[in-house]
Design brief:
This protein has about 375 residues and is of the alpha/beta class. It has eleven helices and 16 strands. The protein has two domains: about 180 residues, DHBP synthase (Alpha-Beta Complex), CATH 3.90.870; about 120 residues, Rossmann fold (3-Layer(aba) Sandwich), CATH 3.40.50. It is globular. It binds threonylcarbamoyladenylate and magnesium ion. The site of magnesium ion has 3 residues, from loops.
Length: about 375
């Protein structure tokens, strides 16, 4: 199959330019499209045929359910059984945007979309192309991230092309996604509220609406027997470049010391080493800086002295995270020493992805 790429300006596109994607989705085909978080691989949420194609193209395990994307609250009413009042308020506050909420699914959504669960994960993306696509189709779109299973999520059309070339008919390219990490997935029911996956909407922002919300962790025994969140996605390997990732969590001084000791350890094994850092003024011996087999990779704002703990910089780190992990592979780096950052705001989602990508975590 030939994979066609259509380039669209998110701020200046016409519905005619979306027609090919619309026609394909109406015919139970699948299309990669941009959202504000990452690119999605979408098909009609009402079509078993389309959803089967999505699982196949991604190589996704069939017990990992998909997010259904909608363009308005009327569409939500058509795919869920009930919308509790507190959740409606949450939707009104955070949608369109990077928040995915679990609902009791209606019969209109085939079981294959939710991998047999009786809940469906729904979100209204804020990206103008995603919204226009769903609105014009008048069909909700089931879409996971448009990467091959286990690979970092795609934040540019070329990432999708590298992973899915020849497996899907169309990619809508509208440049890079500005959030850079996937949506926050939450489960609110029986008086509990938990984050199943941290993402583009922060814990801090959610707390202003749901003061008791916390991040779900499988080992947390505080949840009683009547509330067992199902988190099918958690057991799978994720976000992994081919390179081995060693995550260092601690102060700047600790990081600097660890970089030196890890560098000397792995240099002996003749590995191509990457050092992914978010502090501009990191102090590293010139022997390391001048070694052609060691690449310094800076992630964050280029044009200011704002430090790592600052929210603006954290947003920039999130935006570039997955594309940096992919670039590491393109440069054939064997091992990356990665600086951990503060878990404030979007930092929580960044650290969640880095911990999943890491084969080793060193803490101060
Ligand atoms: O930002 C995003 O969320 C992107 C864009 C394309 O919208 N989508 C995305 O989808 O990241 P995906 O499939 O890569 O991740 C969806 C996550 C998975 O961890 C999945 O297990 C979980 O949501 N999920 C989906 N339906 C669920 C359900 N009914 N119960 C619990 N978890 C669910
Ligand atoms: Mg994914």
């Amino acid at each position: 199959m030939l994979t066609k790429i259509i380039r669209l300006d998110p701020l200046n596109f016409s519905l005619e330019q979306l027609q090919e994607a619309i026609n394909l989705i109406r015919k139970d085909e699948i299309v990669a499209f941009p959202t504000e978080t990452v690119y999605g691989l979408g098909g009609s949420a009402f079509s078993e045929t389309a959803v089967r194609k999505i699982y196949k193209a991604k190589g996704r395990p069939s017990d990992n359910p998909m997010i259904v994307h909608i363009s308005d609250l009327e569409m939500l009413s058509s795919i869920v059984n009930i919308i509790p009042e507190n959740i409606r308020k949450l939707c009104e506050r955070f949608w369109p945007g990077p928040l995915t909420i679990l609902f009791e699914k209606s019969e209109k959504i085939p079981d294959i979309v939710t991998a047999g669960l009786n809940t469906v994960a729904v979100r209204m993306p804020s990206h103008p192309i995603a919204l226009a696509l769903i609105k014009t189709l008048r069909i909700p779109i089931a879409a996971p991230s448009a990467n091959l299973s286990t690979r970092p999520s795609p934040t540019e059309a070329k990432h999708v092309f590298n992973d899915l070339q020849g497996k899907i008919p169309l990619i809508i390219d509208s440049g890079s996604c500005n959030v850079g990490v996937e949506s926050t997935v939450i489960d609110v029911h029986k008086g509990y509220s938990v984050i199943l996956r941290p993402g583009g909407v922060s814990l801090e922002d959610l707390k202003s609406f749901l003061p008791m919300i916390e991040v779900f962790n499988n080992k947390n025994k505080e949840f009683s027997n009547d509330f067992k969140p199902l988190t099918p996605g958690l057991k799978y390997r994720h976000y992994s470049p081919k390179a081995e990732i060693i995550l260092v969590e601690g102060s700047k001084k600790f990081l600097e010391e660890k970089i030196v000791s890890l560098y000397f350890k792995y240099r002996l094994q003749k590995k191509l080493i990457g050092i992914l850092h978010t502090h501009k003024n990191i102090q590293i011996p010139s022997e390391i800086l001048n070694d052609p087999k060691c690449k310094m990779i800076y992630l964050g704002l280029m044009d200011s002295d704002i430090d790592t703990n600052n929210l603006i910089n954290a947003n920039k780190i999130a935006e570039g995270l997955f594309s940096t992990l992919r670039a590491v592979d393109n440069q054939k780096i064997d091992l990356v020493i990665v600086e951990g950052i503060s878990e404030k705001e979007i930092g929580l989602a960044i650290m969640n992805r880095l911990r999943k990508a890491a084969s080793k975590i060193i803490k101060e």
